[in-house]
Amino acid sequence: MMSAKIGRRLGLGALLAAALTVPAFAQTYDGDWAGALSAGGQTLHLVFHIKTVNGQATAVLDSVDQGATIPATAVKTEGGQLSILFLPISGELTAKLSADGKTLDGTWNQGASLPLTLTKK
């Protein structure tokens, strides 16, 4: 009888621990991420549209102020890190997902390295 109670407590504890860890893995990059890039006295408003289909992430960059839309060449996500490559413009976003999944803090590289913070819309 005593071992059954202990077994149920251990089972409940394991279930609770698993439930608490699921949200960390459930975080996703999918969605629209907006931010502003300050360069050379100008501010460029950017929106990254990220979508995952069958485990493969894709992205499109909208440079709002320039009226340009650029599809990503490659998207890599690993361990809370995101990397999006745009070969036609020699640009790359590297960023880390916040614990709450609402911001991406990183760097835009396109000849120069500039800080860029994106928030999920």
Report on this structure.
With 121 residues, the chain is of the alpha+beta class. The chain has a single domain, classed as Quinohemoprotein amine dehydrogenase alpha subunit, domain 2 (Lipocalin, Beta Barrel). Helices cover 21% and strands 55% of the residues. The chain has a 9-stranded antiparallel sheet with strand order 4-3-2-1-9-8-7-6-5, with no helix packed on it. The longest helix is centred in the N-terminal third of the chain and has 25 residues. About 17% of the residues have low confidence.
Mean pLDDT figure: 83
Largest sheet composition: 9 strands, antiparallel
Q: Indicate the percent of residues in helices.
A: 10-25%
Shape: globular
The helix count comes to 1
In short:
This protein is of the alpha+beta class and 121 residues long. The chain is 21% helix and 55% strand.
